[in-house]
Write a structure and sequence with these properties.
44% helix, 114 residues, mainly alpha
């Protein structure tokens, strides 16, 4: 891809396109939109979770390492990371949380630190 800052920026944009799906994000946000108010009288909470990039094996090698570098902890999210949040949202302890988009992305940065 070449060298220098321009090549790094192009590579990062390409990786982020593979890691994040803006259409899926918009659908997630709309899902929680107004349903929480309609269902509140039935004691039903409606929330969505943004899991951030989760290591399911779809990237390897340099691409995997480049995305890992975008996390403050230097590691990808694992399936158990957002799963613990989702499990908590299903408990009575979370009965007051509704209509939210909860980010469980480990501080993921969409741009590499400079």
């Amino acid at each position: 891809m070449g060298s220098g800052q321009g090549a790094r920026d192009r590579r990062q944009r390409a990786l982020l396109q593979r890691v994040g799906d803006p259409t899926g994000h918009a659908a997630r946000d709309v899902l929680a939109g107004g349903h929480h108010t309609a269902l509140a009288e039935h004691a039903v909470t409606v929330n969505t979770v943004n899991p951030g990039p989760v290591d399911t094996g779809y990237l390897t090698g340099e691409d995997h390492d480049a995305v890992a570098a975008l996390f403050p902890a230097g590691r990808w999210g694992m399936p158990d990371d957002p799963a613990r949040l989702i499990a908590w949202l299903a408990t009575d302890e979370a009965e007051w949380v509704t209509g939210q988009v909860a980010d469980s992305e480990g501080g993921f940065r969409r741009r590499a630190p400079t």
